[in-house]
Design goal:
This protein is α/β, with parallel strands linked by helices. It is built from 12 helices and 22 strands. It binds NADPH dihydro-nicotinamide-adenine-dinucleotide phosphate (NDP).
């Protein structure tokens, strides 16, 4: 009993010292610059998780179940790189599951357990003192910047795909070059494609594409594969329409300015340069950690990965890091999840010890598509419905080409739903799943997802927009014409057409 009283008193002392510490920091902030936001203890999150992949979501689930409603800042790549795996076969319990479905299940679990999920991009951090400051940018309105305060952070911002840096790569990006076979593969049905890379991702993607494409050439720069998954390699070796070209470097990617037509490669053994006629080039050449914003703020190793100790703690107290951002070796969803759980438990222990002020109630949450009222977007089910919708020539049409596998497409969906309601009667919005209706996608030469195609009221194609940023900024810009006449709307779209 005596020990319990001492524990309570010492807890109270710690509690008040934490509050006074936070208050003194607040005062310091106010003294420093007048631009500083007014921070109250309600604004300080106990713990903020940076990233939205498997590691981040697992940390979120553990912390939420421990009573901290953590804020997860998921960034622009919904679900992280796992979303690019069409098939995951080594996740315990699931025999086969797509990367997107796996992450989607985790995200739902995190959300149901009480995590607040914010879709914004982390652009800066200040870990020099508590409360730590995380600066985020709106994904679509880049001038909207916000500061988020935290007593502890778990960084799980993963890695980004590498680029080849060869001639033609920038010009044909999205016009035949992709780093996501799962997202864009369906657009290359019955065409010839190449995969660059010899790792597990390349093998997995080659297997996936071999079921769609006419022929798949895997370009490996060394004389052996780096891939370790023997089962997948065996499957690939049995495919008639797959060839593996070893000792082969990419020289350039060529086309007619709009579409990829061929790739020039160099055979280092035969010492010859030659062309392969292909419509698609898929890169699977590894990734680099997303640590740009942590330079000079956390200790990084020579390859840019965040350094952590055995307790997954970075060089700063109460800042943990997990997953691909710390891991040049394993890079597995399950290891990220395991470390996410460990970091959450360790972080929770630290927070409990500090008697952290649980003030997460103000955390923002994103609006899910399912929260919105009935949809005004028309999902096209078959060719006949599509022809009928196109034949009704009264208002402009926007067609959204998407795939169920495509993470970025999911980001566009809620915006599209919202804008469809605002623009009802002025612009018709159709959605086309390219997996089901690939003939429509090939009719309009869709090369990457998400892509939208805009038509005037007479069904003349005006322009295309690709990628979440360009599409969302166009969709947001349409709000300004919602009260205009159809001919004024057409003029507005024509102007965009001319400037595209
Ligand atoms: P890796 O780093 O393992 O492989 C990258 C491949 O791309 C290597 O073959 C590399 O060649 C090649 N490469 C790199 N740069 C270039 C370039 N400029 N030109 C041509 N080729 C290039 O990346 P992955 O994404 O494949 O895998 C990452 C991690 O994820 C690995 O640990 C892997 O095991 C794991 N993974 C596991 C899966 C599974 O378990 N089923 C599925 C997918 C990934 P080189 O060998 O010469 O360096």
């Amino acid at each position: 009993m005596h020990r319990r009283i001492i524990k309570i008193i010492s807890s109270l002392v710690l509690f008040f010292s934490t509050v006074s510490f936070a208050t003194s920091n607040i005062l310091n902030k106010h003294e420093k610059t007048k631009d500083d936001l007014e921070i109250t203890k309600q604004d300080i999150h106990s713990v903020v998780i940076l990233g939205g992949g498997v590691g981040a979501l697992t940390s979120g689930i553990y912390l939420a179940r421990a009573g901290y409603s953590p804020l997860i800042i998921e960034g622009s790549m919904t679900y992280g790189l796992i979303a690019q795996s069409h098939l995951v076969e080594n996740w315990p319990i699931e025999y086969q599951i797509s990367g997107t479905e796996l992450a989607e299940k985790l995200r739902t679990q995190a959300s149901k357990n009480g995590c607040n999920i914010l879709s914004k991009e982390v652009i800066d951090v200040d870990f020099s003192k508590k409360p730590y400051v995380i600066t985020v940018k709106d994904l679509y309105k880049s001038n909207q910047i916000e500061k988020i305060f935290a007593n502890a952070c778990i960084i799980a911002m993963g890695s980004s795909s590498n680029y080849l840096n060869v001639e033609g790569e920038k010009l044909y990006w999205g016009k035949g070059i992709s780093n996501c076979a799962v997202c864009d593969g369906a657009l290359y049905r019955n065409k010839n494609v190449v995969i660059v890379g010899g790792g597990d991702s390349a093998i997995l993607e080659a297997n996936y594409l071999s079921n769609l494409a006419n022929k798949v050439s895997v370009l490996v720069r060394k004389d052996a594969l780096k891939a370790k998954d023997k089962a997948q390699i065996n499957v690939l070796n049995k495919k008639d329409n797959v060839e593996i070209l070893y000792n082969t470097d990419v020289v350039s990617i060529n086309g007619d300015k709009e579409n990829v037509k061929s790739i020039t490669v160099f055979d280092k053994v035969k010492n010859v340069k030659y062309n392969l006629d292909v419509a698609g080039v898929f890169l699977a050449i590894g990734s680099r950690p997303n640590t740009q914003i942590f330079k000079n703020k956390l200790d990084l190793d020579q390859d840019g990965y965040i350094k952590i100790n055995n307790n997954l703690q970075t060089s700063i107290n109460d800042i943990y890091a997990v997953g691909d951002i710390v891991d040049p070796v394993f890079k597995q969803a399950i290891t990220a999840a395991g470390d996410g759980a460990k970091a959450a438990i360790l972080c929770q222990k630290g927070l409990d010890e500090q008697i952290a002020v649980k003030t997460d109630t103000k955390a923002a949450s994103i609006k899910r598509a399912s929260d919105l009222a009935a949809s005004s977007v028309i999902e096209i089910k078959d060719m006949k419905q599509f022809e009928n919708e196109m034949a009704t020539k009264n208002i402009p049409i926007i067609i959204d080409f998407y795939a169920t596998w495509c993470g970025p497409c999911k980001r566009i969906s809620p915006i599209l739903e919202n804008q469809a309601k605002i623009l009802q009667g002025k612009i018709k919005i159709l959605k086309i799943n390219v997996d089901k209706l690939h003939e429509i996608a090939s009719r309009y030469e869709i090369k990457a997802m998400p892509t939208i195609v805009v038509f005037d009221k007479d069904r003349k194609m005006l322009f295309k927009k690709m990628g979440t940023e360009d599409i969302s900024s166009l969709l947001f810009s349409l709000e300004q014409i919602k009260d205009k006449s159809i001919s004024e709307i057409e003029d507005y779209l024509q102007k965009i057409n001319q400037s595209s």
